[in-house]
Design a protein that fits this description.
3 helices; five-stranded mixed beta sheet; about 190 residues; disordered N terminus; alpha+beta
Length: about 190
């Protein structure tokens, strides 16, 4: 990890806000901005990573992030940012029909980062309840895809890579995940089609 930057994986595992600023800058402005940074607005003007509310942190903690859509986002397009063990969506729902997921792999600490993917699954299950595989230490390694209704997926996206995935989605509940080894626990979102 680059010296002077926060640990993204530590922040995500312990439900702390995701911050990637030089430590000196943070310390210099902390007294002025502490109150503003620790509050969030229900209107969605701020983005805060919080762990899932049910279950144990080790089994169900995943960031819950929705970011504001850009003013130029086209109807039916959902911006998806995949980053170091987090997934952000411009919206957690869309109208039925053609939905295009505009996926970009943006590392939180350039030039670091890792490969990610987006898998879209139609299911009645919550994002945290998909069937999983575990390693010999009992750690979740991924989702068992056999028997799931996978309606689409991107290629593996290298750092800085992007792909638009256009799918014809019927009304219902979907789950968006990265299913590369070890990523599912932190990279999953519920998605509704109306």
């Amino acid at each position: 990890m680059k010296e002077g930057y926060s640990s993204v994986s530590h922040a995500l595992r312990f439900g702390q806000p995701l911050v990637a600023f030089p430590v000196g800058l943070v310390l210099a402005t902390m007294a002025v901005t502490f109150t503003a940074c620790t509050s969030s607005s229900p209107s969605g003007s701020g983005s805060v990573i919080t762990p899932a509310e049910s279950g144990t942190a080790a089994e169900t903690a995943a960031p819950s992030i929705v970011v504001s859509a850009s003013p130029t986002e086209a109807p039916g397009h959902i911006a998806v940012i995949v980053t170091d063990m987090a997934m952000r969506l411009s919206s957690s729902s869309a109208a039925g029909g053609t939905v295009t997921f505009d996926v970009k792999n943006v590392p939180s600490e350039p030039p670091y980062g890792t490969v990610h993917e987006l898998v879209v699954i139609r299911t009645d299950l919550d994002a945290a309840a998909l069937p999983t595989t575990k390693d010999d230490r009992g750690l979740v390694t991924g989702v068992i895809e056999d028997g799931l209704d996978i309606v689409g997926r991107t290629a593996h996206l290298a750092v800085g890579g992007s792909e638009s995935l256009a799918l014809n989605l019927e009304a219902g509940h979907y789950v968006l995940i990265c299913n590369l080894t070890g990523h599912y626990m932190y990279m999953r979102q519920n998605f509704e089609v109306r």
